[in-house]
Design brief:
This protein is an alpha/beta fold and 674 residues long. Helices cover 43% and strands 19% of the residues.
Length: 674
Amino acid sequence: MRKQHAINPGRSLLLCCCILLLPAFVRAHESAGRESILIISSYNPDTRRMSSFITEFEQRIVASGVPCDIYVETLECKGIADAPQWISQIDNLISRYEGRSLRAIVLLGQEAWASFVSLGRIPDGVLCFSCFASENGVMLPAPSDSLQTWKPRAVDYQAMGDSLNRVGGMLNRYDIRRNIELIRSLYPQVENIALVTDNTYGGISLQALVREEWENYPDLNLVLVDSREGEETAFRTFATLPPRSAVMLGTWRVGSDGEYFMQRSLNDLVQNNPRVPVFSVTGTGIGDMAIGGYVPEYENGAEIIAGQIRKYYDTDSIEDAHFHTSKSLYLFDSRKLKEWKIAEYALPKGSVIEDTMAAKLSKYSHYIELLVLGILLLVLLLFFVTWLLLRMRRLKLTLEEREGQLVVAREKAEESDMLKSAFLANMSHEIRTPLNAIVGFSSLMQSEELSQEERAEYCAIVVNNSEMLLTLLNDILDISSLECGKIKFNYASEDIVQICQHVMMTTAHTRQEGVEGRFECPVGSFMLTTDAHRLSQILINLLTNAGKFTFEGSITLGVEIDEERGEVLFSVADTGPGIPLDKQEMVFNRFEKLDGNKKKGTGLGLAICRQIAMIVGGRIWVDPGYTAGARFVFAHPIGIDSGGENREGGGFLPSEQRKPLFVNDDGRLVPEGK
């Protein structure tokens, strides 16, 4: 029988912990064989200058195959009052990293380098390098009770190299003598030179270097513009500089309170006394307010320091660690030279003259390109948004217009529907009346009891109503065709005098007994481009209507030719009861009959006349100034183009021959008195 063993929970837990900690032991073993390089930055290592050095240094160390880890720490230095803390921080950092096989220390910035030198402790077997530090300096710490008046002596770090041992790197040299000689060569009458420095280690150490150098120039007065005395005092000192003065710019970053100045603070300081020429010892202000100066060519010492560390690893010898000093040059701003009227031949030999504005543009060209691209994108976006807004506005206006059109169309449709209903109702009524008469009297005519006279009377009524019905149907067809545009007008050059005479004879039977028919025309013949049939239809309707309502007097057809307005006026005047002013427009409506009008007719004749008049481009109306009865006027345009002449032959008769014509009992037109 096989025996089963129980698993111990404690052993399982121990096994799991060992598995989890194994990678950490492996990493610890791997790192145990690697050494450390400590970088201590005076300022934020993310600043452009510090970040550029650290990146290049790491790349060169990795490329050279040096087996080490690189660590970066920062002191966050500002005012000189914090100097004791810098020294303490340097000591703590070195102690912390000594346990990580510290092989080299790189100190970036003057504050870190000065704190390290003032500490006076270099670990055994560790190389120390400086970068972004100056050849001159002062020993720390500063006395806390007299910071504003502290004037330490300058220290030459280059000369201290032998005593320090195992140190090297890059040092910048500030040549005060050459800057003084430059100022005196351009301004021989100068008596006062002001030095502008701030509440930083760099400012105090530079001031110490200048004071030491000034012992060689007893004929010059040194004026210190120091931010440690307060910004207001510094501004006042600068503003009250006497004539025959010049300025050397050093550093201007931190005020007496340990806080950074605003970006334009130095420019505001110089503008306080714009008549004083300004030069620069450190390169500060060149390209803005300084004319120029003898300044260091600042270098990124990453390649030099990485090379010395590589050699140290290869040879295990510290003898090759040494300082490299930066070169210097005369650098001038071309704009300031022109502003101060300094000729180029007056400058020292080998001077470099820069168009600092172009240099700045070149330096920041990438950012400028991005800015221009951003502006272009914003402009395109603005155009796009503007186009969208205009399109939305256009669409809104279109929608409003379409909405208005729909409202008008709906109103027209409703009106058309009402007119159609009214038209059908009127038409039904008008058709029913003659039909009832036809059906009724036709039935009566079937009776055998009717006399011959009664049968003849009923037959005449049936015939009369049949004619009325036929006329109604013809009128309905005419007005429907006219409104639909299905009737084609045949325009031709016609003699309107002949048409009028023919119409007068055609309608002679419609006049009441004793009513005269008269025709008045100023010409014997006049050719007009028109549709003769439709013109005759208008005149016949007007004359027929006049015949219905005129029981005595006369009915006159008149023709007038208005050359100025390009019209021929046809008028039909009667001596009947007339039409009230408020009814004169209503008579042109379909199926419209005035109150009390019992005359036979469809009520469509005048509506057809107006429709025809509109189609030919004319007008028709009731003359409101005529009081002897009713007078209808039809204006026919002369200028209708039919491809031929509008007027041919004929002419105006002399005034003495313009006599009215009458229609005699035989229906013929004769002059008056015949």
